[in-house]
Amino acid sequence: MLDPWPENLIWNAAVLLLAALLDLLLPEPPRAVHPVVWIGKATGALQRIAPRHPVAAFAYGCVIVVLVVGGAGTAAWFGLAALASLHQIAYLIGGAVVLRTAFAVTGLTAAADRTERALAAGRLDDARESLRSLVSRDAASLTPPLVAAAAIESVAENTTDSFVGPWIAFAVFGVPGAIAYRALNTMDSMVGYRGTTEYLGKASARLDDAVNLIPARLSGLLLLVSGWLARLPVGRAWRTMRCDRGATASPNAGVTMSVMAGLLGVCLEKPGHYRLGEGLRAPEPADIDRAVRIVKGTAVLAVVVALGVLAARVAITG
After folding, report:
1. By the 8 A CB rule, do 73 and 132 touch?
2. Kind plus residue range of the DSSP H or E element containing 212
3. Are 263 and 294 in contact (CB under 8 A)?
4. pLDDT of residue 196
5. How far apart are CA 254 and CA 112, in angstroms?
6. Residue 300: is its pLDDT beyond 50?
7. What does the pLDDT read at residue 54?
8. How far is CA 165 from CA 16, 27, 182, 215, in A?
9. Among candidate residues 48, 70, 75, 50, the one with its CA nearest the CA of residue 202
10. Other Cβ atoms within 10 Å of 242 Cβ, number
11. In whole angstroms, what is the distance from residue 156 CA to residue 251 CA?
12. Which secondary structure element, helix H or strand E, spans residue 207, and what is its range?
């Protein structure tokens, strides 16, 4: 196992809970010491010397995945092992600080809140600008309903990438696993798309899809439970998910986004790409706030699930 103390349930559970508390109370660590920033810099440096030929670019992309993802996980393992050799408290605090950099709940919901406030106040340009921290699409021409839809889609999709995936990776493989997961996700966001880096990023994109197959469906299930606890129409959300989960290019994004569309009773559209919840009403600013509350409830549920997976791992390996 990629954890210096795989057999200790209490201390590893404390690492997760403390990391979640740090995310809630403190801002992101400075860029100069943020592991994800360094992962992005390493990926960018390797990308600049990538070959152009499709076959060579694909092979080089595979090498980058091994170097970046493997390197990030290995560095985290040695760091956590060193802390564990010092003292349990050092492992707890250091592990929580490092793990906290691998996920973002407060940052995700705060970005959506900023977009909602600007949109509700009629400041469309500010809402479009705020949206840049949530999505990569060009927001310059988006109408208010499409801005709201993009924000809702982002918070729904990112339940997987931003916290469910990293927490499950931690529960199974420890802090190094969560850092390796974040490294892969960072690589995918930088080079895993069609266009000039299509062949270079194909390995990271396909691996990211495979790694997230289970976390994305778990995220969809947890969104349904969170919606049920909020007394939202879970039956409609389930039907929308069954109908529209395959409408997106990603095999995973459509699951969580279609669940959210059904829970809120809105049609989520990316023009020229997909429409989730056909026939439902257009989203409004207030729907962003409702989506954020559902995601916060999902995060609480995800912590409980991650602790359960951690307990099962310790029972098996301890």
Report:
1. no
2. none
3. yes
4. 66
5. 19
6. yes
7. 87
8. 13, 21, 9, 5
9. 50
10. 11
11. 14
12. helix 202-211
Which of 263, 187, 276 shows the shortest CA–CA distance to 229?
263
pLDDT on residue 201: 82
Residue 11 token pair: 């201390």
Is residue 215's pLDDT more than 50?
Answer: yes
Q: Do residues 150 and 139 lie in contact, with contact meaning Cβ atoms separated by under 8 Å?
A: yes
| Structure confidence at residue 179 (pLDDT) | 96
At 207, list the tokens.
């691996």
Q: How many Å apart are CA 153 and CA 156, to the nearest integer?
A: 5
Query: pTM above 0.90?
Result: yes
For the stretch 23-55, what's the b/e string if a residue is b when 16 or more beta carbons lie within 10 angstroms of its beta carbon? beeeeebeeeeebbbbbbebbeebbeebeeeee
Question: What's the rounded Cα separation, in Å, for the pair 132 and 111?
Answer: 9
Please enumerate in sequence order all residues whose Cβ is within 8 A of that of 129, keeping only pairs 6 or more positions apart, or say none: 139
Q: Is 246 left (phi over 0), alpha (psi -120 to 50) or beta?
A: alpha
